[in-house]
């Protein structure tokens, strides 16, 4: 009885399943198949593909609303689709239905996409899509990575939308100082020309007191200002190097290696080798970046700019076990090169060498997690060196074992890695196997090496219908090109499967679609033409329905990283090899009407730092970041295939279900970002937040979280270390990844002047016929323009006077769509014989300094006379101040020598010093500016005298004599005579005295009457210390408000006042302390009176210019800490300018 009942229930179940399948097939035949991106963006057109599977026309309606409320209609389109017809719908959500507040929370936003198809049975389905307010791309570029105070930061912004067309979004640019305070804010949307071109530029002048440290440029863009792009630059004092140093070291050190080789190459910025000596130091650096030095190596002389070492590994072990060094340690090599001619020193550091038990490591980043039975599956092993760099030409082998013991056919057991470190294998598994364990190992390089191996598991594709579609895989790395004919076979099982659909996506946009050819074959074909819109990579998605169930497959393909035809540009110049000051052209070739930006920088700048450079690699990495797919392709189920492809399918197969996107790549990325913010916020201690943040960063050596946690515990070895390790482990386990950076650090040594040569009395030289070299700029070009109808943008210019190599780069934005960054083109400006003059940044009056002139000769041996020419106020080594100081010099071929000239400046100021060289081999004339400052320390004393000729204050003493002034009151004649008698300390440095008088009314009415006829005279450039700057800025603000109220503010005065107010604000921030207070001088103690005055002026100025709220809030908070119990304020550091108190009254 029980057996009979079970058979009846089984029969009923089979009948129910059959009815369900028939219903699904009938529903599918009557409905639509819709594919949409799993994430949609505001401000851009998304693509939705609608297929009519009905054998009759279908009325289709697409409707998008907010989710879950569905109260806002964002998009709606209705159309008739013919039998078997396909329509690509372009959907742009109505961004006006959203406000900025909608995106201020960390919660994800969704859109409900509803599809209605009217047939005999109405098809009405919907999918919930992720919504992102971020659309478009923005790239930042500065002319240099570092600046000195008073220099100008040149900023360029490239803005395009999702289709890579020039963006129409408004852009808010903010420049923040090292304290994180907004020093300047500017809306870049004001220029219609910039909007149409997509290229914006802005110049920011650093003040004399600009804070040293890292500054940040932030541009906010996108719908409702929801997206930010940042770029940093540094402000510091630096000296531009004349040559660079490169270290060549092994990438990996193995435990059994006997020795290792190091090499150094030192070259001038114009490519010639350096003559000099080099010193090398070797350290072992642990995980906490602490170094242990292992001796000073012998100094070597550079030969053709190079030096080599062969060092024993044994001394690095220092008696310790090798495992102690392998644990996260690296070899750090530091070299210092001293130039023979000038004794200038340049240094470099290389910390990339990794201690490891194996030279290689194996990964499977480009291997799919799934396989289809009886098909050829390609396993891609990523072979890298222990330091993470791809390893080419490495012998590898593979083994594969199925979970049920069935045979796994391996078509090639051994393979060599290609130039990108990828090794390809093919295998086939039986249908009975559910999982395949694959292991790839490397062959030993030598007797000292240990093989590297790694394993992964491939899982069989699961389908309720016991069916699949499979894209045949490439058995070698293939990079496709624009205009190639792409062709692929699709394996279908069983072969009676109905139509196989395909579509091609890039960055969420559907770019090609169709039906595979060969409807009755087990091998279908797909072919389409590759377009530039598919670069740099595209995703091929194929799917079909069998017995009412979905089967699918997908695969990623890489294309050449080429710019679009409209934006592709090339840079050419005829200046390479020419002499300083030569005339030449820089030509940018491309499509007419393409907007371009040109940048030319002295390559010596990049020897100091090349951080933040805009490169083609960064450009395409940013474009790939908007792709919705993840992984190499495939999936264990059809749902996983679609989720990893970033596509949502809406069809009758889902019945009445709602399709969600929570498993898509975009959703996982959003959750990871949200988890990262939540992870750090769970720790209140800033130190533990830092430990947590470190845990979210990718380990360059690929070590497990537990391994890195143990390193932290071992390094700290105290309770604080345990807390840090716990926070690290908690956040590391979440699996976040981020870039890590190391590398070049620079150092400078003191100058050691060479021996002087005796004077030679010659007549005063004539400069006629000599080219004066005095233009030694670091940034040569920072221009924007448009390519003309002849497909060229030509910039004619004369080369600056530096003997160096210029790095010339161009960027472009096409009005037809596309953005491009060229690879830098180098132009070496060179002459066979030239002078190099070195001056200190500043010198003190009456102190002797050495002006060093170095003569380089890359021609024949020369006998030369080097002359330094005198100036009034400058004492040099000649017999008469107006005669030059001359020295004889002999320089061998391809060599350099220096001479030094003693100089004593007798007054402060700037001296344009000229030095020339004359010889049979040629001549040169160089002008450099010597900046002289007075000796001693600045001293300033202020005092105030009340103007009261009517004696309203009932003053009793008619004559008052005090230090600095004499005040006599004649009350009968209502006359007051004030004689200023400047008093200077007895040790005052001569000729540095100055005196200034400011007259300020005690009441607003008096001030107004005094200046009513000449209010604009109050508008002047703020300058000076923290107090002086505010004494000028405040009247500018008051005058601006008065003139505006009286409608007396013309355009010139308006722009001038705004410029001065912004300048005053930026300058005052230089005197802001980290605690929010303001001081008279940089890094001085906070002053209560000054801070209060600054806050008062800034509060009023907020209505005129952008003032960071944090400045006012932190200042007010600091003031509250200075308030006493009785309500008064404590002032321990009184202000210097007492008249500032009157401004507060």
TrEMBL record:
It is found in: Secreted. The keyword Disulfide bond applies. GO terms for cellular component: extracellular space. Keywords: Disulfide bond, Secreted. Coiled coil: none annotated. SUPFAM superfamilies: Anaphylotoxins (complement system) (SSF47686), Terpenoid cyclases/Protein prenyltransferases (SSF48239). Pfam families: A2M, A2M_BRD, MG1, MG2, MG3, TED_complement. One of its GO terms (molecular function) is endopeptidase inhibitor activity. Residues 691-732 form the Anaphylatoxin-like domain. InterPro entries: A2M/Complement_sys (IPR050473), A2M_N_BRD (IPR011625), Alpha-macroglob_thiol-ester_cl (IPR047565), Alpha-macroglobulin_TED (IPR011626), Anaphylatoxin/fibulin (IPR000020), Anaphylatoxin_comp_syst (IPR018081), C3/4/5_MG1 (IPR041425), Ig-like_fold (IPR013783). This is Anaphylatoxin-like domain-containing protein. It comes from Amblyomma americanum.
């Amino acid at each position: 009885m029980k057996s009979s009942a079970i058979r009846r229930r089984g029969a009923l179940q089979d009948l129910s399943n059959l009815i369900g399948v028939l219903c699904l097939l009938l529903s599918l035949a009557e409905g639509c198949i819709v594919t949409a991106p799993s994430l949609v963006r505001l401000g851009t057109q998304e693509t939705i593909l609608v297929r009519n599977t009905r054998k009759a026309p279908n009325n289709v309606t697409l409707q998008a609303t907010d989710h879950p409320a569905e109260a806002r209609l964002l998009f709606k389109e209705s159309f008739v689709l013919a039998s078997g017809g396909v329509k690509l719908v372009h959907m742009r959500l109505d961004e006006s239905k959203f406000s900025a507040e909608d995106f201020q929370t960390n919660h994800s936003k969704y859109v409900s996409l509803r599809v209605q198809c009217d047939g005999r049975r109405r098809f009405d389905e919907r999918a919930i899509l992720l919504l992102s307010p971020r659309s478009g791309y923005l790239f930042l570029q500065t002319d240099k990575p570092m600046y000195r105070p008073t220099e100008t930061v040149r900023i360029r912004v490239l803005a395009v939308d999702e289709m890579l067309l020039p963006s129409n979004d408004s852009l808010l640019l903010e420049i923040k100082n090292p304290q994180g305070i907004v020093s300047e804010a500017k809306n870049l949307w004001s220029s219609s020309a910039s909007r149409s071109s997509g290229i914006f530029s802005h110049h920011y002048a650093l003040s004399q007191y600009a804070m040293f440290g890292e500054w940040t440029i932030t541009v906010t863009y996108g719908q409702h200002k929801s997206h930010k792009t940042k770029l940093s630059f540094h402000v510091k004092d630096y000296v531009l190097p004349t040559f660079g140093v490169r270290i060549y070291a092994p990438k990996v050190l193995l435990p059994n290696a006997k020795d290792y080789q190091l090499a150094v190459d030192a070259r001038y910025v114009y490519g010639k080798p350096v003559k000099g000596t080099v010193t090398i130091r070797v350290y072992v650096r642990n995980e906490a970046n602490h170094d242990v030095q292992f001796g000073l190596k012998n100094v070597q002389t550079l030969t053709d700019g190079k030096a080599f070492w062969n060092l024993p590994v044994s001394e690095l072990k220092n008696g310790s076990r090798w495992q102690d060094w392998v644990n996260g340690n690296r070899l750090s090599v530091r070299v210092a090169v001293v130039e023979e001619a000038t004794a200038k020193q340049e240094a470099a550091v290389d910390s990339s060498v990794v201690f490891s038990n194996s030279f290689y490591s194996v990964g499977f980043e480009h291997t799919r997690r799934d396989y289809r039975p009886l098909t050829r599956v390609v396993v891609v092993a990523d072979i890298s060196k222990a330091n993470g760099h791809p390893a080419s030409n490495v012998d590898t082998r593979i083994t594969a074992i199925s979970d049920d013991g069935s045979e796994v056919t391996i078509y090639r057991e051994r393979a060599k890695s290609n130039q990108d470190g990828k090794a390809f294998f093919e295998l086939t598994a039986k249908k009975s196997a559910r999982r395949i364990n694959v292991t790839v190992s490397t062959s030993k390089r030598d007797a000292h090496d240990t093989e590297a191996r790694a394993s992964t598991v491939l899982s069989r594709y699961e389908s309720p219908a016991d069916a699949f579609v499979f894209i045949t895989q490439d058995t070698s790395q293939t990079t496709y090109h624009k205009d190639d004919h792409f062709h692929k076979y699709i394996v279908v099982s069983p072969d009676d499967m109905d139509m196989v659909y395909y579509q091609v996506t890039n960055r969420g946009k559907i770019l090609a679609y169709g039906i595979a050819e060969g409807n009755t074959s087990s091998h279908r074909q797909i072919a389409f033409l590759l377009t530039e819109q598919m670069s740099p990579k595209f995703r091929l998605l194929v799917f079909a329905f069998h017995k009412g169930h979905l089967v699918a497959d997908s695969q990623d393909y890489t294309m050449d990283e080429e710019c679009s035809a409209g934006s592709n540009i090339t840079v050419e110049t005829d200046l390479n090899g020419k002499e300083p000051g030569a005339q030449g052209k820089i030509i940018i070739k491309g499509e007419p009407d393409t907007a371009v930006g040109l940048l030319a920088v002295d390559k010596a700048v990049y020897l100091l730092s090349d951080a933040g450079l805009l490169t083609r690699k960064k450009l395409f990495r940013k474009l790939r970041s908007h792709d919705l797919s993840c992984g190499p392709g495939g999936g264990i189920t059809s749902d996983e295939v679609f989720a990893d492809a970033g596509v949502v399918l809406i069809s009758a197969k889902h019945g009445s279900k709602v399709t969600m996107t929570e498993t898509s790549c975009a959703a996982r990325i959003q959750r990871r970002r949200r988890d990262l913010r939540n992870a750090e916020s769970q720790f209140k201690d800033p130190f533990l937040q830092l430990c947590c943040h470190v845990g979210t960063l990718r380990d360059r050596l690929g070590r497990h979280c537990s391994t890195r946690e143990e390193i932290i515990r071992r390094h700290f070895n105290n309770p604080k270390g345990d807390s840090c390790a716990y926070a690290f482990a908690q956040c590391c386990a979440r699996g976040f990844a981020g870039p890590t950076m190391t590398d070049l650090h620079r150092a400078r040594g003191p100058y050691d002047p060479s021996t002087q040569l005796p004077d030679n009395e010659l007549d005063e030289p004539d400069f006629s016929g000599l080219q004066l070299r005095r233009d030694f700029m670091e940034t040569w070009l920072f221009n924007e323009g448009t390519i003309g109808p002849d497909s060229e943008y030509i910039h004619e210019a004369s080369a600056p006077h530096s003997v160096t190599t210029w790095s010339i780069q161009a960027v472009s934005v096409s009005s037809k769509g596309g953005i491009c960054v060229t690879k830098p083109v180098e132009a070496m400006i060179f002459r066979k014989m030239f002078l190099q003059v070195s001056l200190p940044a500043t010198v003190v009056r009456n102190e002797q300094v050495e002006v060093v002139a170095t003569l380089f000769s890359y021609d024949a041996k020369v006998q030369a006379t080097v002359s330094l020419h005198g100036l009034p106020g400058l004492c040099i080594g000649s017999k008469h101040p107006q005669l030059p100081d001359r020295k004889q010099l002999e320089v061998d071929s391809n060599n350099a020598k220096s001479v030094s000239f003693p100089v004593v400046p007798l007054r402060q100021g700037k001296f344009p010093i000229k030095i020339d060289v004359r010889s049979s081999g040629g001549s040169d004339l160089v002008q450099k500016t010597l900046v002289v400052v007075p000796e001693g320390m600045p001293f300033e004393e202020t005092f105030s005298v009340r103007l009261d000729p009517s004696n309203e204050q009932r003053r009793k003493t008619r004559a008052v004599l005090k230090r600095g002034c004499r005040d006599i009151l004649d009350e009968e004649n209502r006359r007051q005579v004030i004689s200023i008698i400047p008093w200077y300390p007895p040790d005052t440095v001569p000729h540095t005295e100055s005196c200034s008088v400011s007259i300020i009314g005690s009441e607003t009415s008096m001030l107004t009457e005094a200046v009513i006829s000449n209010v604009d005279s109050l508008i002047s450039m703020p300058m000076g210390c923290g107090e002086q700057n505010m004494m000028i800025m405040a009247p500018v603000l008051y005058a601006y408000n008065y003139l505006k109220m009286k409608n007396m503010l013309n355009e010139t005065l308006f722009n001038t006042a705004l410029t001065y107010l912004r300048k005053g604000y930026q300058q005052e921030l230089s005197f802001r302390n980290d605690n929010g207070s303001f001081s008279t001088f940089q890094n001085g103690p906070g002053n209560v009176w000054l801070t209060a005055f600054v806050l008062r002026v800034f509060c009023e100025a907020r209505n005129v210019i952008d003032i960071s709220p944090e400045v006012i809030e932190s200042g007010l908070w600091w003031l509250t800490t200075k308030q006493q119990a009785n309500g008064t304020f404590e002032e321990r550091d009184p202000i210097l300018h007492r008249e500032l108190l009157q401004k507060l009254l």
